[in-house]
Design brief:
The chain is α+β, with helices and mostly antiparallel strands and 682 residues long. The chain contains 22 helices and 26 strands.
Length: 682
């Protein structure tokens, strides 16, 4: 009886890798992409924060957590790979569409640069690069439904690795591939590349008789790569191939190449089938493989295919791509794992862009077949292509980029000739149109198109392009300056913002958000699992008076200083200059709104603005370089602080006899920092 291959839940394996560490930068590569599923279900695995069950509140919490990722997160996906039923992207994630002209952009990788939560005795947090090659796309099917494969390696800073040169070459090539279009969007990729550059390259291909892991980046054919790395060690072994996709026929050239090169003793090839039993290959390929000497079709053990334990459990689709060389005696097992299907475009250079790991295992017992030989002929055939229907329809050569921190939006036409007339729509309603865009250049959109796009982006980042091909295509807008994007859900009062600043733990902040979530936020997925708190009475409380104000601003100042000291500049930018529900700018905007409307206490408003002015004054003096980098944002913040003048005049108007002299004295001493008095112990 064939043995079961090692199997586990993908997200749990990733969580185990990240335990005790925090994310510094991450790059995800995928063919098919569901932005909403990625942000709500995959990204949380890498952030390790407690989250609400309500999807709307969970998204706000993720928005907060993303601020503390020092470099950020980027996703590179095939320009035609957006899942038609996908939900939009809403978080601060760089999403970069890649147009691979000779095939499809097909790698599935995770590059996660992490550092230890706890520093060593010298205050240093050791960093590690987690590198995974997968068969799973960033979709619900890839992470939750299909049978997929994944192998992960860890590279410790300053360590020796056989992967260094190949990874650097691949990452540099990826940046060049899209650099002309997205030259300013590769910070996470560059941080990971620079980390790898600071490791040491192993020159030997093996150690202690075991092959070191090698990274396949598609510069040669798969067969040439296997031969160059493993030399003659794969010759004459058993070969087992799991792939969901094949060429149309009449023969499988990649399979023939592998057999001719390595002369395996026996070969088993997985036969993918639909839920209704049809073989997912052409009859020509089926007969061709069946007719090869010492080659047979195989099927997976049923235990791996069932999506549950009950009799009604559906059979899962096998989407894994595995090339397994093994011998029972002597015990030997070598796996090639990643994105490579058994197709000519996947196996040859100049076809698809693919990646994979070649790894040798140290089996504890004699390896046996994973696949069960299957001689039963299919009654019907339903050939399925590896582009999954996306390479000829579903995308566009148009890209759209939008800045939240500027009044700027641009389009880019990725072709060698000018564009035809294109209509860009959302939910069937035209947003703007363009015509005759020059090739390979960013072109600004007019002001009315920017305004309309800004309105639409509050609800969705996925647009439809009509006029580029026979069918409408989907595009994902590249959003920049996400710190200035309006908050996803909350519009808090000044007192609530201060209260939120004063909370110390993530759990406290989560409970606070759930208690103040608007009703619409608790009508979606997971809302039934949320316990509603009665809202706090809108009467005067301790936290609405001076002690609460000072405590809140003290916490903000400490968090900003800590973020800048530890290289988390994005977090400081969000807090000081952003337009989120808990940003300083949002607080000042709400204070001005309430004071203009005659709501709230004028004295409280004045003290809040003075605290903000003191905070800006101190940070500007201590963090000169940071302030220079954000000169435009700092100018806007200073203009908001100008509201203090109008508040001051209104206070004076309330008592022209005493108030002017009092405020002169108050302002002078309030903006000065007291020097702590240290008393000598006796």
């Amino acid at each position: 009886m064939p043995e079961l291959p090692p199997h586990a839940v993908l997200s749990e394996q990733m969580e185990d890798r990240l335990r005790g560490r925090r994310l510094v930068a991450a790059v995800f590569l995928t063919f098919r992409f569901d932005p909403e599923f990625f942000e709500q279900e995959i990204l949380p695995v890498f952030l390790d924060v407690p989250l609400s069950h309500a999807s709307a509140i969970k998204l706000v919490q993720l928005e907060d957590a993303m601020r503390s990722v020092p470099v950020g997160v980027a996703v590179y996906f095939d320009q035609n790979g957006l899942v038609p039923e996908a939900g939009p992207s809403k978080l601060d994630v760089k999403r970069i569409a890649v147009r691979h002209r000779t095939g499809i952009f097909h790698p599935k990788n995770v590059f996660a640069l992490v550092e230890d939560n706890d520093p060593d005795d010298e205050g240093h947090r050791a960093r590690t690069l987690i590198v995974s090659c997968l068969s799973a796309n960033l979709t619900r099917a890839g992470w939750w439904e299909n049978v997929e494969v994944c192998h992960t390696e860890e590279i410790i800073e300053g360590d020796f690795t056989r992967l260094g040169d190949d990874l650097v070459r691949f990452l540099e090539g990826l940046e060049r591939r899209v650099g002309e279009k997205d030259s300013d969007g590769h910070e996470p990729l560059r941080a990971i590349r620079d980390f790898v550059r600071n490791t040491y390259q192993r020159e030997r291909r093996s150690g202690n008789g075991i092959l070191y892991p090698h990274f396949f980046e598609g510069r040669t054919s798969v067969t040439e790569f296997l031969r160059s790395v493993a030399d003659r060690s794969l010759d004459g072994m058993n070969l087992e191939i799991i792939s969901p996709y094949f060429d149309g026929g009449p023969t499988s050239v990649p399979l023939n190449d592998l057999i001719n090169e390595f002369r395996p003793r026996e070969v088993r090839v997985f036969l993918p089938r639909a839920h209704t039993g049809e073989a997912l290959c052409s009859p020509e390929i089926y007969e061709s493989v069946r007719g090869l000497p010492n080659v047979s079709w195989g099927r997976m053990p049923q235990e791996l295919l069932r999506s549950g334990s009950g009799e009604s459990a559906r059979q899962r689709m096998v989407h894994a791509k595995v090339y397994r060389f093994f011998t029972p005696q002597p015990k030997s097992e070598v796996l090639f794992i990643g994105s490579v299907n058994l197709t000519a475009p996947a196996h040859r250079p100049g076809g698809n862009l693919e990646t994979g790991f070649l790894v040798e295992l140290s089996p504890a017992r004699r390896p046996d077949w994973w696949l069960i030989a299957d001689a039963s002929r299919p009654r019907e055939y339903k050939p399925s292509l590896e582009d999954e229907g996306n390479a000829t329809a579903g995308g566009s050569k148009l890209s759209v980029r939008f800045w939240w921190n500027k009044t700027t939006a641009e389009t880019y036409w990725d072709d060698s000739s000018a564009s035809p007339k294109l209509n860009i729509t959302s939910q069937g309603i035209e947003i703007f149109s363009v015509d005759g865009l020059p090739p390979k250049a960013w072109c600004p959109l007019p002001a009315e198109a920017y305004t309309e796009l800004q309105r639409v982006l509050r609800s969705t980042s996925i647009l439809t392009v009509v006029g580029d091909g026979k069918e409408p295509g989907l595009i994902l807008v590249q959003e920049e300056g996400m710190s200035h994007r309006p908050s996803l859900m909350f519009d808090l009062s000044p007192a609530e913002i201060l209260r939120y600043w004063s909370l110390l733990t993530t759990a406290q902040r989560a409970a606070f958000l759930e208690a103040r979530a608007p009703e619409f936020a608790l009508m979606g997925e997971g809302a039934a699992l949320v316990s509603r708190y009665a809202p706090l009475a809108q009467t005067q409380t301790f936290f609405e008076r001076f002690a609460g104000i000072f405590l809140a601003f003290g916490n903000v100042e400490r968090s900003v200083r800590s973020a800048l000291r530890e290289g988390r500049g994005r977090e400081a930018t969000y807090r000081l200059f952003g337009q989120k529900y808990d940003s300083l700018g949002s607080l000042l905007k709400r204070v001005l709104k309430d004071s203009t409307a005659g709501e709230g206490d004028l004295v409280d408003h004045y003290v809040i603005v003075m605290c903000a002015q003191q905070l800006v004054q101190e940070l500007r003096r201590e963090q000169c370089e940071f302030w220079r980098e954000h000169a435009s944002d700092g100018k806007c913040l200073q203009e908001q602080l100008g509201v203090a003048a109008s508040l001051r005049e209104r206070l004076i108007a309330s008592d022209r006899a005493e108030m002017p002299a009092f405020l002169d004295w108050f302002d002078r001493w309030f903006l000065q920092r007291a020097t702590p008095v240290v008393t000598e112990a006796r």
